[in-house]
Amino acid sequence: MIKLGRTGNRDISYIDLFGKKIYGHDMASILLKGMHTGGYYSVNSVNYTEASLSAEDYEPVTHALAFWTSDVDRTVQVGSGDGSTIGDLTRAGNSTIYAHVALSSLHYDVPTGGAFADTDESDKRIAGELSWTKPADTNGITGYKVYWGTAGGTKLSAEALYTLPGVNNCSQTIRSGTAVPDGATCFLVYSYGLTGESSSCLVIPIVDHVVAAQAPVINTHPADATKNIGETATFAVSAIAPDGGSLTYQWQRSLDSGGTWSDLDGAATSASYITPALTYADNGAQYRCVVTNSKNGTTATA
């Protein structure tokens, strides 16, 4: 709050700068139009147009001086220096009333009502819709930033995971298979504007939805076969994945009564396998199929 004192019969007045855009031209509660002059932000309610303002031109504001030059012409100068004065606050023929105050960082309200439900069933992988509600007071807010963080509000990185321009842009789709970094237990959502981020954040917990590993269920095992030399043998397996995963197959052969097994090359990765033409060396060979649930890596052998 900047307080303007009393001179002669002039009443005490107040101008509230906290929460307003010092950088922009939407300071309607203070002054309407302005320009950038002499290294300071000088606003005048009479002479200049909003088109002359450029938010990117101004340095961060830490102090302000306010003064009146007449009953109808009000001017506010804002600069980045300390001291009791910033520039020349007098104009010939006019008395000057001013106050010097420190300005807090411009305040941006924090979003509310965050929600996230993980739809990815893998461990340390997430997916789903992250959402929140914009604050009741959106003054100065130009968007939101989302970070990995902890329940205590500590960021894991200074770099935002997502930046969402627009005060009404209050949701973000997390793509399937997004890896959760070590130490991250929450999303941190900050409002941001021309001068930086909100001083606090909305904390949205991450609950990793993991489905317990389920092995494939073998419904039909391969059957023994008796064949002549020169013929081929066909083996088949039937299996399902109880958790809806997809199955992969690898056929193997053993020549030492199941002591050791070797993967078969060629077309040995489907639910059925046809041997090459058999020779005497194949007598007594054993075949099996290792079925793997690709969703969680568990296996079953038929």
Care to give the gist of this entry?
The chain is mainly beta.
Helix percent band: under 10%
Question: Are there runs of 5+ residues with pLDDT below 50, and where?
Answer: 1-105
Element-level helix/strand string: EEEEEEEEEEEEEEEEEEEEEEE
Tally of distinct domains: 3
Q: What is the average per-residue confidence, as pLDDT, rounded to a whole number?
A: 72
Helix/sheet category: mainly beta
Cα Rg? 36 Å
| Number of β-strand runs | 23
Strand content: 35-45%
Oligomeric state: single chain
N- to C-terminal distance: 79 Å
Overall 3D form: rod-shaped
Q: Sheet bearing the most strands, described? A: 5 strands, antiparallel
| Strand line-up of the largest beta sheet | 3-4-6-5-7
Number of helical regions = 0
Describe the overall structure.
The chain has 3 domains: 2-102, no CATH class; 112-205, Sandwich (Immunoglobulin-like); 217-301, Immunoglobulins (Immunoglobulin-like). Helices cover 0% and strands 38% of the residues. The chain is built from no helices and 23 strands. It has strands at residues 2-4, 13-15, 34-37, 40-44, 63-68, 74-79, 98-102, 112-116, 125-133, 143-149, 162-165, 171-179, 186-193, 196-197, 202-205, 217-220, 234-236, 238-240, 247-254, 262-263, 272-274, 286-293, 299-301. The strands form 7 sheets. Strands 3-4-6-5-7 form a 5-stranded antiparallel sheet, with no helix packed on it. Strands 10, 11, 13, 14 and 15 form a 5-stranded antiparallel sheet that branches. Mean pLDDT is 72; it is low at 1-105.
